[in-house]
Amino acid sequence: MTATTVGVLRETAPGERRVALVPRLVPAVGRLGATALVEPGAGALAGHHDADYRAAGAVVVGRAELLRRADVLLGIHPPNVDPVRDLRPGQVLAALVRPHRIPYLVRQWADHGVTAIGLDLAPDLPAAYPLDAEASQSRLAGYRAVLLAAARMDRCLPPWGTADGLFDPVRVLVVGAGHAGLQAIDTARRLGAPVRAVELRHRERAAVAALGAELLDLPGLHPVADDPELWETVDRERLAWVAGLAEAVADHDMVVTALDLPGRMPPVLLHTTAVARMRPGSVLVDLAAGPEGGTIEGVRPDTTTLVGDGVIAVGAGELAAQVPATASLAYAHNALALLDRLLRGGEPAADPVLGPMVVTDRGTVRHEPTRRFLQDVTAVAGLP
After folding, report:
1. Residues 6 or more apart from 168 whose CB is under 8 A from it?
2. What is the value of pTM for the model shown?
3. Dist. CA 286–CA 211, nearest whole Å
4. Dist. CA 26–CA 32, nearest whole Å
């Protein structure tokens, strides 16, 4: 690829405060041989002003000019633009695409010849780690989830001692030990709480043990090798998950659900009846909560629901956006690693690292789950 102009868009999603490139990394973009264009106000909510970008060597231009000139568009979320009117064939769009949430927009990108790359779709390869924005942002979300739950609890996490005795500690359960779950475990333990975790994948189970948390095995569920096997278990043994978690949460005061299933709708594993059995004042945070729901029944992003006798269920939303300075710097490093790989030349879809991250390219939807979904709905509608 011979792209020489990179455009950084101002985010328009409600509550979003991050930016895809920070001023301190603009010179690094220049060293790759690219020019950085930045939309006015793009970094303001993360503490980076237009003057900071200009001083670093970027060019601040309006949105229309940026969309017209940029060979690569960088954003946190897919931009809220008309693919036909505002994008052009051959243009590269890089963001946290989450294609399972926007399949019809993905189809439009493909039809218009846009190459869309998901920084949330990095493969599990050492060479892909620097590009993995899903990992960097998930770790921040796991950290914020514990702080969010702690702020809403009616007790302190550590077992504080007093002259009258020792208060019981808050018992924490983390469901899923991917990037977000492991960070939630580490944060809760650093705050002094005993932590248990539900996790089936061998590598993640070892990471839980290394952090000093206790593994909680649910009846009828057995360890698995990797993500695909975990997904199969969630689908095949849904009743065992639901029954096991219903029993487990009743013994805990704080629950963080962080079961990461990239590219899939989150399965409902905790029903309201189970949540209502928890001690009054308990708090749950669902990191999987999105527009299509989450792993806790009835939870929606950026909402707090009172269940039963004073149990609080929180839909996390974009928790990384609550720490925009740290999150933006981490994301910008991921974006810079992507640019470095793109600007080496070659076809992104043929690159072993970039290939799995390519959602659309040369008129085709390449992200397999999204492609299958579009085929299915087209067949149901009787369309060619």
Report:
1. 159
2. 0.92
3. 21
4. 10
